[in-house]
Amino acid sequence: MSTATLTIQQQDSAHCLHPFTNFKELNAKGARVIERGEGVFVFDSEGNKLLDAMAGLWCVNLGYGRQELVDAAAKQMQQLPYYNLFFQTTHSPAVELSTLLAELTPEGLNHAFFTGSGSECNDTVVRMVRHYWASKGQPNKLEIISRNNAYHGSTMAGASLGGMGFMHAQGGLPLPNISHIDQPYWFEEGQGQDPQQFGLERAQQLEQKILGLGEDKVAAFIAEPIQGAGGVIIPPDSYWPEIQRICDKYDILLIVDEVICGFGRTGEWFACQTYNIKPDLLCLAKGITSGYLPMGAVIVSDKVAQGLTEADTEFAHGFTYSGHPAACAVAIENIRIMQQENIISHVRDDIAPYLAQRWQELASHPLVGEARSKGMVAAIELVADKNTLQRFSKEQGAGGVCRDICINNGLIMRACGDTMIISPPLVITKQQVDQLITLAKQSLDDTL
Ligand code: PLP
User: Fold this and answer.
1) How far apart are CA 422 and CA 434, in angstroms?
2) In the predicted model, is pLDDT for residue 172 greater than 90?
3) Inside any domain, residue 5
4) How far, in Å, from the CA of 262 to the mean position of ligand 1?
5) Relative to the CA of 224, which ligand 1 atom is closest?
6) Cβ–Cβ < 8 Å for 152, 220
7) What pTM did the predictor assign?
8) Of the residues 20, 58, 119, which should be mutated to test ligand 1's pocket, given the most ligand atoms within 8 Å of the CB?
9) ipTM over 0.85
10) Do the Cβ atoms of 368 and 360 come closer than 8 Å?
11) Ligand 1 site: residues with CB under 6 angstroms?
12) Among 340, 356, 381, residue at a domain's last position
């Protein structure tokens, strides 16, 4: 370890508190220092080149080092580095981006409420749907239904919507009037059952929950099209149509959290197009700027926007950085590049099918119980016994070991327990997918 790296690590331990981190464990070990990025690779302070199969945190969709995005931010910062959308002011980057998003998102979704992150989007929707129902004369419609093992961010409302056991209970959560149903995670919870029947039954839990709470009490249901941080949980095809039917039947607003899935990850601009879902509210972040600047947006349907407008009262909610001009400029440029480089068809017709085919090769590895992918997200389930699909014991758990081995081999994969997941930059090439698979195979062998 170089002296320069050690110095950074010491200062880091002394002064920087990391998100989602066991501080004691990190301080004992020292953080890896990431210095720069290029394409699908990042480089650490010891000169190691790592294939970033997580695109940072599911966000660097166009890869590292895109000069156009840097230039867009710099140009906007020179002209107007900051102004807000409060107190009846606006600015061109926010107007241009909201217009562009209205064109790109499915029909009927025409209004953007900007935020600084995915968590802020989900805090926003909690307040917005309740405000909407109150405006419609139904103030008792307060309940929001989410799912176990969902991830919707780590602000108080975002984490309350989340359902990751102990993690989401820390700090006295959840907030009231939020409840959860089970997830459509066939490998973990549905084995022995037909996957489509399992998907249907998991969706029907929504109906049971609505009836249990009282339909006049339920404001909305929120879900990720594919659960990301929960372990890339791809629902059976039967799941989403049934969820849509139930939301329509009981007039429950459907909030689709596409913080990960949005902007091409599933091979369409938005995963609600992939799954034919009709959201009332659509949460976007991450890929909206390819992670170059923090930004989120709640895309609101005409129906909800009309309700909010008719209310003729202030929606008392927003952030200093809602519609930050430089973030908007980067988002506009990000979309322009995606259009110019045909990123959607690159994903849908070319690289996602290739990844799917190569990823399946991992399924035959003795450690792997299942390999699955959809678009540019993929997962493998690590098992102790390939025949019975028996998991490792909690103490034994192989995911953390495999993740560390991957990094030592030059590959960034993430471990969700014993589920290894990837979400590579969308610009990854076939040759780089080959490299990813080679490194993954080698890492699995080394984990054995
Ligand atoms: N929603 C989903 C589906 C996410 O995956 C995440 C983050 O990973 C969030 C919300 C929170 O986004 P942020 O970390 O930008 O607050």
Assistant:
1) 14
2) no
3) no
4) 12
5) 3
6) no
7) 0.98
8) 119
9) yes
10) no
11) 57, 117-119, 122, 151-153, 224, 228-229, 257, 259-260, 285
12) 340
